[in-house]
């Protein structure tokens, strides 16, 4: 058998492959209907008890959709069938895992879910990296026809396209920030990290003051120029681990990783002054200010919507207080400002 990895460098480029996966910003995100629909169709059409959309990180296999294995969300790479699938361009087909020396002693074969047959198709990015697989799994030995495997390949192409559509939908073309959808995905991931590892983070929501007047006075082209300038300025000030999102109109969100409430308050003031200093070329030049709401993560934030709503309340308080200022959400102030620095 010819090892295709010798003539296909990207199958050997593990660092590039992991970076390609990270561009999708999908690991540890909640379940999404498009992926569950694809896995559900695979289960029905292939008549198998288990169907999985699996993504391979550097040290683990993570399931974007997993139907038929309960609440399982990930495994180590060592036991992953998918790790073998991504090493080639063609599907990996195993009629009986107990007869295959690569898998006969695998704990997923000898124990639950007792995998016997497996067929997986790699999920390939447009630039040629296999980031995961779509697989059909049975607990009995199975023979699949070439036409059945072609059907699975078609479903895998749909899953790969969904990954791309998801990525494109997460970038706002005016400001270069994440869209609201993309931003809330990152906020949900921060909430998950807090629940699992107690990792701190903070959320800023900002709104440009009297932005309607900019559009009404100078037109929407001038308004877009202001939004682009604000997006560029904020992106330049953020750390690589922070996330900027455009939540709608002239409202932005900033997720500050590993940040305390005090860190967030200092950052908000820095961002506020930077926006205040922006001057858009016009006659006369256009200047804007922004109001900020600040909220640090806590156990009361179960979803992105809940956390954003709390930061929004603080933003409204800043607006009522005279604009061009920041306010801290009451629950954050009560639980965190009292802590020692």
Tell me what the structure shows.
- By secondary structure, the protein is an alpha+beta fold.
- Helix content is 41%, strand content 20%.
- A hairpin with a 2-residue loop joins strand 8 and strand 9.
- The longest helix is centred in the middle third of the chain and has 23 residues.
- The chain is elongated, with a radius of gyration of 24 Å.
- GO terms for molecular function: diguanylate cyclase activity.
- This is diguanylate cyclase.
- It catalyses: 2 GTP = 3',3'-c-di-GMP + 2 diphosphate.
- Its EC number is 2.7.7.65.
List keywords for this structure.
341 residues; alpha+beta; Beta-Lactamase; Alpha-Beta Plaits; 2 domains; six-stranded antiparallel β-sheet; five-stranded mixed β-sheet; elongated; disordered C terminus; Diguanylate_Cyclase; diguanylate cyclase activity; EC 2.7.7.65; GGDEF_dom; diguanylate cyclase
Write the layout of secondary structure elements.
Elements lengths: L13 H10 L9 H14 L3 E7 L3 E8 L6 E3 L5 H4 L6 E3 L12 H4 L6 E8 L5 E9 L7 H23 L11 H18 L3 E8 L2 H8 L1 H18 L5 E6 L2 E7 L3 H16 L13 E7 L7 H17 L5 E3 L1 H7 L5
Parallel strand pairs: 10-11
Antiparallel strand pairs: 1-2, 1-6, 2-3, 4-5, 5-6, 7-9, 7-10, 8-9
Which topology of the largest domain does CATH recognise? Beta-Lactamase
Number of domains: 2
Give the termini distance in whole angstroms.
62 Å
Strand order of the largest sheet: 3-2-1-6-5-4
Biggest sheet features: 6 strands, antiparallel
The helix content is 40-55%
CATH class of the largest domain: Alpha Beta
Q: How many distinct beta strands?
A: 11
CATH superfamily of the largest domain: GAF domain
**Oligomeric category:** single chain
Strand content: 15-25%
What is the general shape? elongated
- How many helices in DSSP terms? 11
Quickly give the CATH architecture of the largest domain: 2-Layer Sandwich
Mean pLDDT: 92
Round the Cα radius of gyration to an integer and report it: 24 Å
Classify the secondary structure makeup into a structural class: alpha+beta
SSE topology string: HHEEEHEHEEHHEHHEEHEHEH
In the predicted model, the low-confidence regions spanning at least 5 consecutive residues are: 335-341
